[in-house]
Design goal:
single chain, 304 residues, mainly alpha, disordered N terminus, disordered C terminus
């Protein structure tokens, strides 16, 4: 799929359209990945957590390699190092997250996981107002969790937090991969690396269940919703969106996960969860407005 060149559409007037373009890509990716995650929860009894991750990565890798047909020659050692680390990061992020949702509710898992991108936002921010948006989003995250995590399975919470750390690393290496490889070529290669790494784990846990037609079909749907579409959209967005702003936008994920849980898994929202969603959305809107204002005041800039 052709990707816009870095900074495309922002040449002479980088105002609202230039900032909202990549923001729309991030939001679309969030909707896709969380509804795909809810579908994966329904599939877990059939194939297990590791089996789902294997199907998700393998199918996504095949689709991306066929669509992108990335060149294997002409890349430097640094290019290959970046794409390999990106692949390892994706495999670890997926594996840890599905271990988490195998033990704790998906909303709580995403709530804990999003702390990784929020920490990245605070660490990389150069404007004081971004700390305010991050703090507001963090307040929403904890409100969404019910104000504490003491009732959760400790192993599940630990897996979710570790997945959050990998999510922060994913943001960094997705941006680097997008700068080093054209279109989505780097993503396709990284997905293949992740699939190869996870294949032995999935076979060990699920065996022949992975080739059951129903399981394979549902796994393919999870792969398209949770990997192919969102990762491609986010990679394209990161070519024009600073990592700090992207990370704050990731605070929308618990809200989207709650919506997916309600529609797919019949998990109703409480008043506290609705209030938490309002806080998180407000924080994300504030981050977007800050980025738009920055673009108007500073003129065209090279992609981060």
């Amino acid at each position: 799929m052709p990707a816009p060149a870095p900074g495309a559409g922002t040449g002479g007037a980088p105002g609202r359209r230039g900032a909202l373009g990549p923001v729309g890509l991030v939001l679309a990716g969030g909707l896709s990945v969380q509804f795909g995650g809810a579908l994966a929860v329904t599939l877990m009894p059939r194939a297990g957590a590791l089996g789902i991750v294997t199907l998700r990565l393998a199918v996504a890798a095949v689709v991306l390699l066929l669509v992108c047909r990335p060149r294997l020659r002409g890349h430097s050692r640094a290019d290959w190092g970046t794409v390999i680390v990106f692949g390892v990061t994706m495999a670890a992020m997926n594996g840890l997250f599905y271990q988490a949702v195998d033990r704790i509710p998906i909303g709580a898992a995403v709530t804990l996981e999003v702390l990784g991108p929020l920490a990245l936002s605070v660490a990389t921010s150069r404007r004081a107002v971004n700390l305010v948006w991050a703090a507001l989003a963090l307040a929403g995250v904890f409100l969404l969790s019910g104000g504490g995590f003491d009732s959760l399975d400790p192993a599940g919470a630990g897996f979710a937090l570790a997945a959050g750390g990998m999510w922060a690393a994913y943001i960094v290496f997705s941006a680097r991969t997008g700068r080093r490889f054209p279109q989505a070529d780097g993503l396709a290669l990284a997905m293949a690396v992740g699939a190869l790494l996870f294949l032995p784990l999935g076979i060990a846990e699920s065996g022949t269940k992975l080739v059951d037609p129903v399981t394979l079909g549902l796994g393919a749907a999870v792969a398209l919703l949770s990997s192919v579409l969102p990762y491609t959209l986010e990679l394209l967005a990161l070519r024009r969106l600073p990592a700090a702003t992207f990370a704050v936008l990731m605070s929308l994920e618990p809200a989207i996960a709650a919506l997916a849980g309600f529609l797919v898994l019949d998990q109703a929202l409480t008043a506290a969860q609705a209030a938490a969603i309002t806080l998180v959305v407000a924080a994300s809107m504030g981050a977007v407005r800050t980025q738009v204002g920055r673009g108007r005041g500073s003129g065209p800039k090279a992609a981060a």
